[in-house]
Design a protein that fits this description.
348 residues, Type Iii Antifreeze Protein Isoform Hplc 12, TIM Barrel, two-stranded antiparallel sheet
């Protein structure tokens, strides 16, 4: 998979997405400064959300449209989206600002008009949000554009994932990534279920990753160690500005720490290689080997008393210990001498 000029899933390199979401708090300058901060924090990408209140829901005060059981408890859906959406007239400016910073920029569209709008901006990829994974017509339309499709699985069972993938495949699009996601804000760490990272990749033959709403670095580090190739975190310039997503977003310091931790985890993963580095070879100096630990006279027999397996590692390999016990030595040997076959009498 390639998004913009970035190849995803190559050499254990995680593609790190800073999700702007509603963290502009209705101010374009805040959004622009957030993009600059995301670059400083080490993000590879800034992601937007492209919708309006009217493309998300209807303006109704009926009970169905009042949020229950989340941090937005009691709020009206329409009013929440009215506060949170990113004005479409900002998008071109934000895309350009990201490009100036060397960041990839794409978005989550929430209806066909948003897809058309983003196509005009030459968006390099599309993200299907967790709650849109059941919107098969939208997924088909997104997939039909022939660009990478990243799908969050926050509310998805196995059948939901299969339906979404089938929608992409029908459109001839195989360039798909699935992100493990817990659709809770913030998400409890005990519900992260990171073991799914590997299963998503293997079961569905896709790149897998993480869309994370937990607090802190632990889950991204675990995800990286389990093979995640994409990590998405909500990013905010300053939590003091508030907003609908502030409570589960990372500020610049926190995001920087997360990126550092992920990059260190990548290095720690390494590769399958039984060859020793120069440092590891040098470390063998401190391993055990066979040494003479008492002065021995010519003709004496090697015993468990006069030879031992001790540090350092310059003597004979300990695997020969049993083989040399009972052998006579061919010369006087001083205590502290490395044991060698040359000290043994032939055929004895």
């Amino acid at each position: 998979m390639k998004i913009g000029n970035r190849k995803i899933g190559i050499n254990n390199q995680v593609f790190i997405i800073a999700e702007l979401s509603a963290n502009h708090n209705g101010d374009l300058e805040t959004a622009l400064q957030t993009i600059k901060a995301a670059k400083r924090a080490g993000a590879d990408c800034i992601k937007l959300q492209t919708y309006t209140p009217d493309t998300m829901t209807i303006n109704s005060q009926k009970k169905d449209f009042i949020i229950q059981g989340t941090i937005w408890e009691g709020r009206n859906l329409y009013n929440l989206y009215e506060e949170a959406y990113t004005p479409w007239e900002w998008h071109k400016t934000l895309f350009e600002a990201a490009a100036e910073e060397g960041l990839v920029c794409f978005s989550s569209p929430f209806d066909k008009t948003a897809v058309d709008f983003l196509e005009d901006l030459n968006a390099p990829a599309y993200k299907i949000a967790s709650f849109e994974i059941t919107d098969i017509p939208l997924i088909e339309y997104v997939a039909s554009k022939g660009k990478p499709v990243i799908i969050s699985t926050g509310i998805a069972g196995k059948e939901d994932i299969e339906l979404a993938l089938d929608a992409c495949h029908r459109m001839g699009n195989e360039d798909i990534a699935l992100l493990k996601c817990t659709s809770s804000y913030p998400a409890p760490i005990e519900e992260a279920n990171m073991i799914m990272i590997g299963d998503l990749a293997e079961r569905f033959n896709v790149i897998s990753g993480l869309s994370d709403h937990t607090l802190g670095n632990t889950v991204p580090i675990v995800a990286t160690s389990l093979g995640a190739k994409i990590i998405e975190k909500h990013f905010i310039l300053d939590k003091s500005i508030g907003g609908p997503d502030a409570s589960f977003s990372l500020d610049e310091r926190e995001f920087t720490e997360m990126v550092k931790a992920v990059r260190e985890a990548e290095k720690a993963i390494g590769k399958v290689d039984y060859n020793l580095t120069d440092k590891q070879k040098k470390g063998k100096d401190f391993s055990r080997s066979l040494y003479v630990v008492e002065d021995i006279s010519e003709g004496e027999i090697l015993t468990e008393t006069n030879i031992k397996s001790i540090r350092p590692g310059f003597g004979m390999h300990p695997k020969f210990f049993s083989a040399v016990l009972g052998k006579k030595v061919s010369q006087d040997i001083e205590k502290g001498t490395r044991l060698s076959f040359e000290f043994l009498k032939d055929n004895e």
